[in-house]
Amino acid sequence: SLLAGLVVGLSGGLLCSLILMMRLRNGREIQTAIRRNQFHIVWQPVIKAPEMKFTGVEVLMRWAHPSAGAISPDAFIAWAEARQLIVPLTRHLFTLIARDAPRLSQVLPAGSKLGINLAPSHLHAPEFKQDILDLVDALPPNHFQLVFEITERDMLNENEASDVFNWLHQQGFEIAVDDFGTGHSALIYLERFKLDYLKIDRGFVSSIGMETVTTPVLDAVIALAKRLDMTTVAEGVETQEQARWLVDQGVNYLQGYLFSRPLPIGELIEWQARQD
Ligand code: C2E
Ligand code: CA
Ligand code: CA
Ligand code: CA
After folding, report:
1. Residue 260: CB within 6 Å of ligand 1?
2. How far apart (Å, rounded) are the C-alpha atoms in residues 211 and 164?
3. What separation in Å is there between the alpha carbon of 233 and the centre of ligand 3?
4. 201 pocket-lining for ligand 1 (C-beta < 6 Å)
5. Which of UniProt's keywords are assigned here (predicted)?
């Protein structure tokens, strides 16, 4: 009977998590989570090479689910996209950013860069431009240089993309191509759109330093960014060896656990106080 109890217990747990998964997938859970304030944000420092100075941050979303625990943005952003909930979720993200912004401006001087990830479906939504203008209105005036991070697949609808990118540039924002090299190849558009930053995916960075491994694609990506006059940002930098190699190659900014994990605003302020 101990065994039977164990089996029932196990399958009960399994059933619970299956039901939870289904509720999560149908999207209602995301709306409830917004209302109940289960989403929060963390800030990851971005370091300028070669002087290794803290000059900006990227904001990343977190979901503390009461029964499922921490849910990764890789999962819930995709669910929100599939359920047409990206617009409300991103608006909520913007209110969280605005809430932290006064404290953030204490550790980052005027002109510092604030990176925000945008989901493809928001970029192409009719509300997009107004949402961005509302965000700017809610931030300390003229303090942060906003950098919107998009992925390669956002560039595939060429006419729509060029309208949005031109508008963002006219408004004085910068644009970064995120996860470069992992999605559809949009090389031709890189030339056409004149975007500002190329973020080198952590998959490339993690191969640096394994002695017998050469890095032909990474070498080519860095050379390509230079030719296109794009500023490079390497993400997922975890070791001194990776940092040194990237700085030697002329990569402009570094981000990763070597410097700091993404932190809640209070911890970011403490982290900054420990830097020289
Ligand atoms: P991303 O934009 O490529 O963000 C970088 C991811 O790498 C983050 O994962 C960050 O925590 C992680 N990371 C940073 N440094 C290191 C490191 O040294 N080592 C390792 N192993 N990982 C590192 P996270 O926070 O789980 O976010 C995953 C993805 O979810 C993000 O990838 C982004 O595409 C998406 N995401 C996160 N927040 C948002 C958001 O607010 N809006 C949208 N649209 N997408 C978001
Ligand atoms: Ca990003
Ligand atoms: Ca990335
Ligand atoms: Ca990613």
Report:
1. no
2. 43
3. 9
4. no
5. c-di-GMP, Cell membrane, Hydrolase, Membrane, Transmembrane, Transmembrane helix
Contact 234/251 with Cβ under 8 angstroms?
A: yes
The answer to whether the CB of 167 is under 6 A from ligand 1 is no
Ligand 4 center–CA 7 separation, angstroms: 38
- How confident is the chain (276 residues) per 10-residue block, as mean pLDDT? 55 66 73 95 98 97 92 92 92 98 97 96 92 98 97 77 94 94 74 92 87 80 94 97 95 98 98 91
Residue 61 CB less than 6 A away from ligand 1:
yes
The helix/strand/coil state of 206 is coil
**Distance (Å) from CA 71 to ligand 2 centroid:** 17
Q: How many residues does the chain have?
A: 276
Q: In which residue are the tokens 């644009």 written? A: 175
Q: What local confidence, expressed as pLDDT, does residue 217 receive?
A: 86
What is the ipTM score, two decimals?
Answer: 0.97
Q: Which residues, in sequence order, are CB contacts of 258 under 8 Å at separation 6+? A: 237, 238, 239, 240, 242, 243
Q: What is the pTM of this model?
A: 0.91
Ligand nearest to the CA of 180: 3
Alpha-carbon distance of 14 to 16, in angstroms, equals 5
What does the buried/exposed string (b/e) look like for 215-227 if buried means 16 or more CB atoms within 10 Å of the residue's CB? Answer: beebeebbebbee
Full DSSP string of 124-149: TSTTHHHHHHHHHHHSPTT--EEEEE
Q: Which tokens in the block code for residue 274? A: 């420990």
Atom nearest to 42 CA in ligand 1: 25
Instruction: Return the pLDDT at 132.
Output: 98
